[in-house]
Every structure is written in structure tokens, then in C-alpha cells.
Design goal:
Length: 284
């Protein structure tokens, strides 16, 4: 006897992880507004990002106003960051729509983090599974300077993602002056073999991490938790997908940094999204 068509549809819907039949966690992700051409101002380890070029960037700060880490908005309620950025002793706030830290104007809401979910197998010594998801106290409204980054949930994308050799990182971390940047910086970084990170960080990386870096430029202290990704074309539309999370580097921030592989932790991301991403009460 053939399957009943309605029953088949229900079965398909039951196993689809997201509404909208999208390849991404949030179908509205990864798009940018048109911005003015960059003036070309450069620093040793990157260049100043265009305004609104990374509307998914999140500036994480503590109650004492200290800058903690970077992060990315992945839905209207969830922020992706590194596990080492979260401390149970601190209340975190996520500033959205941030670009130039000293600029007081514009729409830059600051939302309290009401729950944090760190990977249960995170190892603070090796930084394996250095990934965490923060839940905002309320869902934010998307606009020009606030929009989620694309998170690919289908493992069939693995070969394509691994083939992308030039990646883009963003953050407010240390510049060549040794100070955090006032403006959001961006940098193109090459993938490197695991052996390069093993050599320059004195730590062996595992399969759900990857290595990237340049000789004289790199993400540095303060960029932790921020994204490494790439602009792709999907269904005739450009989308920026997140591929890695900045985890750790060497003291000189040269040649090698280790990144948490996002697709390698997609089960963790989906679990948190399903259980706590839509306003359900969180249990720590």
C-alpha cells in the first residue's frame, strides 16, 4: 500500500529542523545594506570595516563596562561566541549595531544576556569545543545595522566550506598599538594546515577546530568569540556565512590562530536553538 500523501508531508515537516525550508538557521541572515566605499585607511593587521558591513557583530561587555569578547547574532534571540568568553560570575550585555565604540549616536541597543549555554565538553586547557550560545533577554528587531549571520546547518556543505581558503574576520581586538580598536576592523585570512597551528601555538588541534592566519596580520587578543566567514552566492543572492569562531592564538598574533569549526558543532547549536531559542524558559 502506498503512503498517504498527507502523512508523508507530516513526516517531512517533523524532521525539517527549521521553518522556511532554508539552508540557514535564520532565513533572513547574511545580507548587507549598501555602504559607502571604504576610504582605504589601513592598520598593520587589517582595515577599518565599512559601516553596516557586518550587522551581525555583537559587542559583549560586563556590568563594569569592560569589553569582554566579540560574538555574532545568529537569530533574533541568540548570540554565538566562544566558551571561554563566558563567566558565571559576570552578567553580560550584548550591544548590537555597534561599529565605532566611541560614537554615542545611532541605534545601538544593549540587551542583557539572560541565559548562557556553554558546550558541556569544553576544555579550558586545550580550548577544544570552545563554543557557547548566549540568549538575549528579549528578541531584537532586525534593521540596517542589526541582522543575523548565516549558520549553515546541513553537513552536506562540509566539502564546499572546507574548500574556501580565504576567510574574513572582524573584531575590536588589539591592533599594532597593543590597544583594542575603537572601530570595527576587518581582515582577510588564509587557511593553514593543522601543522602550522601545532607549531606556532604549541597545541595540537582536533577535527572540530581549524587553523588560519597570515604572517604579519591576524586576529588578536580581544577578537575572541568573533566570526571568521565568507561571502557566498546562494540562490542568486549573496550571503555571509560563519565558518569559525575565534578561539586562541600565539603571543605575537602571527601566522596562526585556532578557530572553532561552526559546522562541526552544529548539533550543539541546533539543540540550543530548539530548546531555548524561541523564548522558552531556560534551565542552567
Amino acid at each position: 500500500m502506498g503512503k498517504h500523501p498527507i502523512a508523508s508531508q507530516l513526516l517531512v515537516l517533523l524532521f525539517l529542523p527549521f521553518p522556511g525550508f532554508s539552508q540557514f538557521l535564520d532565513p533572513l541572515c547574511g545580507t548587507r545594506t549598501r555602504t559607502q566605499k571604504n576610504t582605504g585607511m589601513r592598520v598593520i593587521n587589517g582595515q577599518i570595516a565599512q559601516n553596516n558591513s557586518s550587522p551581525w557583530m555583537v559587542f559583549l561587555k560586563a556590568t563594569d563596562y569592560t569589553f569582554v569578547c566579540g560574538g555574532t547574532l545568529i537569530t533574533n534571540r541568540l548570540v554565538l561566541t566562544a566558551a571561554h568568553c563566558f563567566s558565571p560570575q559576570k552578567t553580560l550585555f550584548a550591544r548590537l549595531g555597534e561599529y565605532k565604540r566611541s560614537f554615542k549616536g545611532g541605534y545601538k541597543p544593549e540587551v542583557r544576556v539572560d541565559a548562557a549555554f556553554r558546550h558541556r565538553l569544553y576544555n579550558p586547557n586545550t580550548h577544544v569545543n570552545d563554543i557557547a550560545i548566549l540568549r538575549l533577554a528579549y528578541a531584537v528587531t532586525y534593521r540596517e545595522n542589526i541582522r543575523p549571520i548565516c549558520i549553515v546547518w546541513d553537513p552536506n556543505w562540509r566539502n564546499y566550506i572546507d574548500s574556501i581558503q580565504l576567510l574574513t574576520g572582524t573584531g575590536w581586538g588589539n591592533t599594532e598599538t597593543g590597544m583594542d580598536s575603537d572601530e570595527l576592523m576587518t581582515l582577510e585570512i588564509q587557511r593553514r594546515s593543522p601543522q602550522v597551528c601545532n607549531k606556532y601555538t604549541n597545541n595540537n588541534i582536533v577535527s572540530n577546530q581549524f587553523c588560519a592566519g597570515n604572517l604579519n596580520s591576524n586576529l588578536c587578543n580581544g577578537d575572541s568569540g568573533g566570526p571568521l566567514g565568507a561571502m557566498i552566492t546562494y540562490q542568486n543572492k549573496q550571503r555571509f556565512i560563519q565558518i569559525g569562531i575565534a578561539s586562541y592564538t600565539n603571543q605575537r598574533c602571527q601566522w596562526a590562530s585556532v578557530y572553532t569549526d561552526v559546522l562541526g558543532h552544529i548539533d550543539f547549536i541546533l539543540r540550543v536553538w530548539r530548546l531555548y531559542g524561541n523564548g522558552q524558559k531556560a534551565t542552567q
